[in-house]
Amino acid sequence: MGLFEIIIIAVGLSMDAFAVSITLGLSVKKPKVKEILLPGVYFGFFQALMPLIGFFAGVYFANKIHDLDHWIAFILLGFIGGKMIKDSFSKDEEREKGNPFHFARMLLLATATSIDALVVGIAFAFLGVNIYTAIIIIGFTTFCVSICGVKIGNIFGAKYKSKAEFIGGAVLVILGLKILIEHLFLN
Predict the structure, then answer these.
(1) Domain residues of the chain, as ranges?
(2) Are 137 and 69 in contact (CB under 8 A)?
(3) Contact present, 140 and 44 (Cβ < 8 Å)
(4) Is the CA virtual torsion 178, 181, 182, 184 positive or negative?
């Protein structure tokens, strides 16, 4: 597998993080530099870490991970998205109290969006890919794409802030459903 193929895989893997980053951008009025960079750091790190774990786990865990990855992503994204939808119906003062960039929430989102990268790491082991080159490309790509997602989401959210959190939550729930349906019916 060449560099071009790894870049294409990196872009594909980063799309879930991009969608979630858009929802994070929707949730703040004017993001600070930290709020713009934080999703990139979390998502980029986890998108790089998971293929590394998958690579070293190799054949032993391949079937077990493949059978559960879609359920884990569905549950995590559904939980976070459902909470965002619920919060969208609360008063503005109540919503302001929650931090969309809180450590536990970011950890859940980063894990949920990177589970498929674990399976990619297993495939890399079978294909003899240089895992260190691959994880640098995947992590950096996801970092950049996530930063762009926060900015895009924030621009959208500034224009439509009353519905932004609801839409963001719905996107996460739909993303979770998409992952579940693809694995249950299209694989």
Answers:
(1) 3-185
(2) no
(3) yes
(4) positive
Q: Which residues contact 111 (CB under 8 A, 6 or more apart)?
A: 46, 72, 76
Q: What tens-digit pLDDT sequence spans the chain (187 residues)? A: 789 889 998 998 888 888 889 889 888 888 899 999 999 999 999 999 999 998 888 756 656 666 676 777 677 667 777 876 777 676 554 444 567 788 988 999 999 888 888 878 887 887 778 999 999 999 999 999 999 999 998 887 656 555 656 776 777 788 778 878 887 887 6
- Output the six-digit token pair for 38: 């934080």
pTM of this structure: 0.72
- Asked if 88 contacts 169 with a C-beta cutoff of 8 angstroms, the reply is yes
